[in-house]
UniProtKB/TrEMBL annotation:
Name assigned to this protein: LysR family transcriptional regulator
Protein's UniProt keywords contain Transcription regulation: yes
Organism lineage string: Bacteria, Pseudomonadati, Pseudomonadota, Alphaproteobacteria, Rhodobacterales
GO BP of this protein: DNA-templated transcription
Species of provenance: Ruegeria pomeroyi
Family affiliation: Belongs to the LysR transcriptional regulatory family.
The entry's keywords: DNA-binding, Transcription, Transcription regulation
Length: 303
């Protein structure tokens, strides 16, 4: 390990450089770090002097990073995130452990959340912190130990646990079908279709599984989450292709009806994924083993 002080700049200086790269102005950096602009400037000058490298371009009152500084920030951002993550674990659960989990909002709320009280009862010393993420991310630059993921098991640099397969069903408000459900799946092409951003080809895949030829591009409105697309369906804006676990209550109460009765299995599945480097973390290992017991008996999934 390098021991010369030259190679250990202050955290304050590194945070100022990282924030300038991310925010683009000294005033924004000063606001985020609760410093004056002159203090930010001094932090950056100190860092340049210590490194012996020009890091900042000064054009009148505007500051920007040199190419060398941009490359440097890419590496130190990961280190700063890891320091923050380690400090959070130390402060939040000094007597036990912590798992910082990225969740898919609907799956997290409908599938994971009702089960968590049992985990808390079995492992009262482990804290589960949850934050919503809709798409895959780089674990090296985000403060997460694991994530709930839908899709193929292809997240680079991770190991995985299969949690749940998924079947989807086309549903809509009863008023959208005054004469009853269509007699063939192709009839749905004449109805307004609702789409979700994270699964842009969901309808094309459904029609293909039903043996129906459809255009490569299907018209319709676009939504970012199951919660919003579900509300659109409830209010009669169109037909939504939704997982069974999302719509079962609304189907049971009659707020939604099946626009076609056949649910089909999607091409993806739900997984817990985690970076290989954290695979032996005791808290994550306990959470993973508990989740495996939740998934296998209820869903009958292959291991």
């Amino acid at each position: 390990m390098l021991t010369s002080r030259k190679f250990f700049p202050s955290i304050s200086s590194l945070r100022a450089l990282e924030a300038l790269d991310r925010l683009g102005s000294a005033s924004a950096v000063a606001e985020e770090l609760a410093l004056t602009q002159s203090a930010v400037s001094r932090q950056l000058q100190t860092l340049e002097g210590q490194m012996g490298v020009e890091l900042i371009r000064r054009d009148r009152k505007r500051l920007s990073l040199t190419p060398a500084a941009q490359d440097y920030v890419t590496e130190i951002r990961e280190a700063l995130n890891r320091i923050a993550q380690a400090s959070l674990r130390l402060q939040v659960a000094p007597a036990g452990g912590t798992v910082n989990l990225a969740i898919l909002p609907t799956f997290g709320m409908r599938w994971l959340m009702p089960r968590l009280p049992e985990f808390s009862r079995l492992h009262p010393d482990i804290t589960i912190n949850m934050t919503t993420r809709l798409r895959p991310f780089n674990f090296a630059t985000e403060p997460f130990d694991a994530a709930l993921h839908f899709g193929e098991p292809d997240w680079p640099g991770t190991d995985r646990l299969l949690l749940k397969s998924e079947r989807v069903l086309p549903v809509c408000a009863p008023g959208l079908l005054p004469h009853g459900a269509p007699k063939s799946p192709g009839d749905l092409l004449r109805l307004p279709l609702l789409h979700i951003q994270t699964r842009p080809r969901a309808w094309q895949d459904w029609f293909a599984q039903m043996g129906v030829a459809c255009p490569e591009t299907l018209p319709g409105t676009l939504y970012d989450q199951f919660a919003t697309i579900g509300q659109a369906a409830l209010h009669g804006l169109g037909v939504a292709l939704l997982p069974n676990y999302v719509v079962e209550q609304d189907l049971a109460t009659g707020r939604l009806v099946a626009a076609y009765p056949d649910a089909v299995e999607t091409l993806g599945a739900y997984y817990l994924v985690w970076p290989r480097a954290r695979g032996n973390d005791p808290s994550l290992r306990a959470f993973r083993h508990w989740l495996a017991a939740q998934a296998e008996p209820e869903e009958g999934l292959p291991r």
